[in-house]
Amino acid sequence: MSENVVEIDIALPPKGSAGMGGALPYRRPRAEVRFSLENGDVRSGWVPPRVARLYEKALPDLPCTYRSAMDALMELESRVCFTALTEMQSRREHSSHEVRSKLQQHGFRVTSIDAAIERALDLKFLDDARFMASFIDERLRRGWGRRKIELELKRRGVDPRALPGYPEAFFSAEDDAERARQLLQRKSVPETRAFEKLVRHLVGKGFSFDVAARAARERIDDDA
């Protein structure tokens, strides 16, 4: 039975079409690449539209074997997957978990994603420790407390306890207290239940109750 491909058709998703959702992670619409064989069979491969467009511009010479046509498509997807990863990192630091999730949403295969992440880690272009250190530093400048930072890092698939020197190298009681005081200096003291509301505000920012309570008392005393 002949496995030679005699025609390749590209079907891009309609503009504005919705991706997969529901119980599955959201995934953008993918393009279908159809391979028509000499024996009349039609086989399909599904790839991100970006991959399909590039493949359409450099289709293999026909006729060719189905294996070689598919291999060329998968090799192109792997290259585009790594390019998409580097583009993400050029915009801002990501964790490995974030990168994997976003590439899955774009419709890349697991094997392409695994290879792209492994290469990026080897090149130190992707580094979870660097991501966490940068994330903590930036969120501290925003006035976040330790608890909120830790929760957000865990949501992004990384554990700050893996950082050398954590938490002492990143947090101190004095710095927490000063950040809490600075946050409350930008807030007016409520007329009713001031202590409760100020404490709740700081706890919501990730500060411990003790730090929040001290800062709230100081702010109320200053206002008085």
Walk me through the structure.
The protein is an alpha+beta fold and 224 residues long. It has helices at 49-57, 66-91, 96-106, 110-122, 128-142, 146-155, 173-185, 194-204, 209-223, and strands at residues 4-11, 31-37, 42-47, 64-65. The chain is elongated, with a radius of gyration of 26 Å. Mean pLDDT is 91; it is low at 21-25.
Topology:
Blueprint: E1 4-11, E2 31-37, E3 42-47, H1 49-57, E4 64-65, H2 66-91, H3 96-106, H4 110-122, H5 128-142, H6 146-155, H7 173-185, H8 194-204, H9 209-223
Helix pairs in contact: 1-2, 2-4, 3-4, 7-9, 8-9
Which stretches are low in confidence, meaning pLDDT under 50 for 5 or more residues running? 21-25
Mean pLDDT: 91
Specify the helix fraction band.
Answer: 40-55%
Strand order of the largest sheet: 3-2-1-4
Specify Rg, calculated over alpha carbons.
26 Å
Number of strands: 4
How many helices does DSSP assign?
A: 9
Estimate the global geometry from the Cα principal axes: elongated
Q: What structural class results from the helix and strand content?
A: alpha+beta
Strand content: 5-15%
Q: Short description, anyone?
A:
The chain is α+β, with helices and mostly antiparallel strands. The chain has helices at 49-57, 66-91, 96-106, 110-122, 128-142, 146-155, 173-185, 194-204, 209-223, and strands spanning 4-11, 31-37, 42-47, 64-65.
